[in-house]
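assembly run, all chains below
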Amino acid sequence: MSPPPSDSTPHISNGSDAPDTSPAGSFEAELAKAGANVRSRRGMAVFLARRYPLGGVGLAIVLLFIFVAVFAPYITSHDPLSTNPAISLGAPSAASPMGTDFMGRDLFSRVVYGARTSLAVAFGATLLGVLFGVLIGLASGYLGGWVDLTTQRFIDMLQALPTLILAMAMAAALGPSLVNTIIAIAIPKLPSIARVIRANTLSLREMPFVEAARAMGMSEMRIALRHILPNTLAPLIVLATAGLGTAILVEASLSFLGLGVPEPHPSWGRMLSESAAEYVRTAPWLVIFPGLAITLAVFGTNLLGDALRDLLDPRQRTSN
Amino acid sequence: MGAYLVRRTVLLFVTVLGVSIIIFSLMRIVPGNVADILFESSGYIDQEQKAKIEAELGLDKPLVQQYTGWIGGLLKGDFGFSYMSERPAISEIVPRMPVTFKLGALTLFFTIVFGIPLGVWSAVRQNGIVDNTLRMITLSALSLPSFWCGLLVLMFAVHVFGVIPIYSNEPRGIWHELALLSIPAFVVGFRSSALIVRLTRSSMLEVLRQDYIRTARAKGASEQTIHYHHALKNAVLPIITLLGIEASHLLGGLVVIETVFNIPGLGRYLVEAIRWRDYPIVQNLVLFSAFAVVITNFIVDMLYAVFDPRIKYSE
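ok done. output:
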């Protein structure tokens, strides 16, 4: 199943040194057609919020988590790492609103600082996956020939492994660390990103504006980066946002299995593995709160991703 | 058709062979091997002992020789030797297969039984209460980590029934086993069926707008017949694609849920083997999951031709 080509209208080079190939132009035109006041940013924002209320909720949730991650030290005064055996497995109370774990660490601070770990891994893995996925996809689609053939076979092989299994194998091979977890989650992202970019590149390569750029004497590298790449931005943004939620889930699963982010970084997934089956009986708060944090974060990115897909990539819509 | 089958089969083996090289290389970039782990626990490293263990396990041979040894063995049905249990890998893997297969089959069953009818229901009531409720539920289901969902189910069972429905080694009879496996299967299937509901809905919406549906209605066909006989038949291809993807990636979901529910299957074994760096087990299990993926893709392509007679694989 090959993904449909990008919907953004390519522009024919206008002869200046840096022709406008960004999809933003056509995007604003489309908004204006739909009745938005494109002259002010506020007008556009109001229009978008009305049109995609769920996407707005998603954006708010994502921003909330980013805020919590950035300002963690100001949100909680407890150190997420300081232990206190005296209050081990304490129930939620005024002093520790989410209770304490078996080492007497404050769960609320751990969940708050866990947002840092989770978002760092999610954004890091997505960026890394997009960077290399785009490089592979562009090279494969633009250069064609044996480069295309070999990369496609390699991508087939990567795709023959389930996401979590590949991430587990990578994580095990690289050893436990924050950076290695990011790499382990980025690698399974490569195939889908490379595929979409390649498909788009294949159709864009034949466009008149590429021919025009070539006629002007632009180097192939410059055409690929300045003319082809900007026109694949819309599907790329959609894929990357949708991938954020998956990255959060995979990080949580890896950490749950003991193959993810190591101590001392507080990780939501590892909090659940520490508190697994036995605390289900004795300390349910240890199970409920970290899981809620994961679910809410993923829910937010899913809502945002759905709205962005409807907005930027009308042909990939799943709902009408 | 014949030429197509041959080409597909060749490609299938090329992919699996490529995956085997990737897995093999991955397992070798680990700093340290099983001998290091054995000595790690004792606190010091006896170089002579270590060399002896490595020689016994074949870790001192050149990498190419280790690789050809592995693949050659596989072709002869020799799956290598588990470092962990000191038994042939095959006698560790095979007994764990049935429970994982049962769990996988039950998961797919739940995915289809809930996913497709609910998706159809959602589509025919587009923008109604049912549709909107289902859309919220499915979106939430996609955000729920399956291991957390599993833990919540365990918690619910503990607080309401006072028992933890964890798989014990010997379930009492087939119904007891079915009941025990249904819970984790439902937890994994919840997410997959949410995906199927969403796709069935959008796929059905495209079809329901077509002229022949109006014709069917004009002929006086019942709504039930129209939805399931006329519409679903033509909306089913993308659903099969997604079901194929979900089926082939099942092992990934089962790894986590087998750990939560303490089920002695392949998934939990893979986690243990990775922790112990038991190469023969990890290599074989990961390769097995790749094999499952390519075989499922192959079956799905064949199913297209079954469900849509217009598709023929010939040139």
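Chain A touches chain B through 50 residues (CB under 8 Å).

The radius of gyration of chain A is 23 Å.

not gonna interpret more than that til we talk
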